[in-house]
Design brief:
about 170 residues; alpha+beta; four-stranded antiparallel sheet; two-stranded parallel sheet; about 20% strand
Length: about 170
Amino acid sequence: MFKDIDGGVCAPLGFQASGIHCGIRKNNINSPYQIVLALEKKEYKRVKSLVYLEGGKLIPLNLAGGFHSKFFGNAARAFYESIEKVDIEIPIINTYSNYTGNVYNDRIKYLMAKQVDNRVEWQKEIMQMKEDGITCFIETSVYCKLSSLIQETISDVEVINYKKIEELMKI
């Protein structure tokens, strides 16, 4: 992952995510126990050493790109230019921005573009949903990863997984 490009994405494992400070920008804050970092190749060794000193390890992730990071600045600008031409209304039901963790407002196009090259505030978003009264979360995925992140972040909510679309269509 860090061999042929200027940077990549990795996840520190083995300690609480809030333990990472060391001047590193967290690109996805998924739960109290999971963050994702998008690093330049030159940063990787330093960060790996810092994580190791804290009792953890740094695992490179095999992703197609450094999503939600500075590596996607050009894509974010191009995306914004494209959606500027489209009429997008604020959704009738509350829809949350990965960029802010809050409900979309009248700056929906701006917020959508910002989440392309900025970190995902998944933990904050899930906590905000619960604060807004959402008590049931449904995930449709064979991996059920988001469900586990929800359960790591909040309690006293129902989390349902549908691994096949046929299961979901029965309700």
